[in-house]
Known about the structure:
Layout (H helix, E strand, L loop, with lengths): L1 H7 L3 H17 L7 E6 L4 H4 L16 E5 L2 E2 L3 H8 L7 E6 L3 E5 L2 E26 L2 E25 L4 E5 L6 E2 L1 H4 L1 E8 L5 H17 L5 E7 L5 E8 L3 H9 L4 E5 L2 E5 L4 E4 L6 E10 L2 E12 L1 H11 L4 E4 L4 E5 L3 E5 L2 E6 L12 E10 L2 H21 L6 E9 L1 H30 L2 H25 L2 E2 L1 H30 L5 H28 L6 H30 L1
Parallel strand pairs: 9-24
Antiparallel strand pairs: 1-2, 1-8, 2-3, 2-4, 4-5, 6-7, 10-12, 10-23, 11-12, 13-14, 13-20, 15-17, 16-17, 17-22, 18-19, 20-21
Amino acid sequence: MNYKIKKLFKSWKIILLIACILLSVAFIHPTSSEGVAIRNVITNSSAALAGIPQPGPAIKPVARERIISINNVPIANTEDYYKFVSPLAPNRTIQIKTTKQLYRLTTRENFETVQLNGTEQKTITETIEKNATINGTIITINETITKTIAVPKTMQISMGTEDIGLRVYDAPKTNIRKGLDLQGGTRVLLQPEAKLNSNDIGILIDNMKERLNVYGLSDIVIRDAADLLDNQYIIVEIAGASEEEIKDLLAKQGKFEAKIGNSTVFRGGRDITYVARSATEARVENCNSIGGGQYACRFSFGITLSQEAAQRQADATRDLEVVYDTSSGRNDYLSKKLELHLDDVKVDELNIGSDLKGQAVTQISISGSGSGASQQEAIANSLGSMKRLQTILITGSLPVKLKIVKTDAISPALGEEFVNNAILMSLLAIAAVAIVVGIRYRKLTIAIPILITMLSEVIILLGVAALIGWNIDLAAIAGILVAIGTGVDDQIVITDETLKGQTANVYNWKEKVKRAFLIIMLAYTTVVVAMIPLIFAGAGLLKGFAITTIIGVTIGVFITRPAYSDFIEVMMK
Length: 573
């Protein structure tokens, strides 16, 4: 027996299997990490201002920054985290200790600005560009002017403590990335309304990623897909996000244009160099009842135009007439308004002050409105509309409009239940296979190696998934079970061929293994050919199942099956 064991560890096929198992365990990196991992840091939040960085999309799960304690209170899971931060009062300084460093942040009071009746005088300082002649040369210079304007009276309503801006989840125990089915979130299947080439698809995906990142969402997977009828699709998966948060943001093309008459003076994207987003620069105001039990609120925020866009605005206003305002007795406005168009629909129009005629002004104020059945709902809808408009102004429009084909929203609790059920079913399947094999051969020297080989395939497959960042979802788990099933079939073929040869007094082991592997390779080719169409079927939603199955059977055919054949040869010869 000792001789056979020594011979086993001299087989290069078995050595290769052991090396692959050790490497896979290293890639999976099982650990007993405590705390909560940071999924996302909201822009301009207390956490962002304290210097907590946004996690990179390519970072391994166990390498993510984790919160260990807050004010020296240990944080073991998400329940501990939210239990601590929920009752925090405004203007309180807290210390967050993570796996990387110690951060100090101050909670902020959440204010909503509401406009009151009446106006008040406000002095503002503004920098404008004007043409000047110096030594006979016309140049553009900046001039700072101070003026007093009438603005609506406002008041700030306290809404409690502002969210500190962290989205967390229980610290991952391995580098295996869980798919949306297992961790919760939203999956949206989108279809472009026009056919796109590969370059446009790339631009579309990049723009969508930027838009979602600006909107404050992370853990984003965006990929293109197609079905067997050559229909194009975009699949977006966002962990920890609700359907309402992303549905409109993704479906809308988001084409923003500001027009004066028939002239487009600036567009969202490259024409905008800065968009005000802080609480002091972007506000909701003037909330009033509009009848029928409805309320409406207006929002406003400032933007900075590029010099080219400012010049286009100057050219468009140069020949406009100044309109005399009878209520104020002054020449206040130009004869045409600045019209704001979103997806080719006019959403608002703004008067242009007479002092802006022919001036290449880069500072512009944007406004809009939102409504609801109550004042709080109107404020919330106004904030949502403002946030979406700000995002489109920053990122620009998508190359084409998208149609929502399907949305799937999965809660984290349901995802955890899926994980538990998947693990339970996998263990039951392995146990059932072990029992059947044991009854069939009634030899531990055969049943145990088959079980070990089966578990080895699972470990190596998960190691490959951890290495390449492949998400393991319910479809992938089904693929793993298929790979295990085909692996057991192949091992039974190898075993039966060798035992049949022994009974028939045929002792040419190479011939027996060759005969077994001919059957195995034919079965392998059949499985791979059958899986290839599934990669594209169903708009790519079955891609995880197909790819996982192909990787699993490939690992089995080229790594685990040869090692098992050497084991059988040594032990049974």
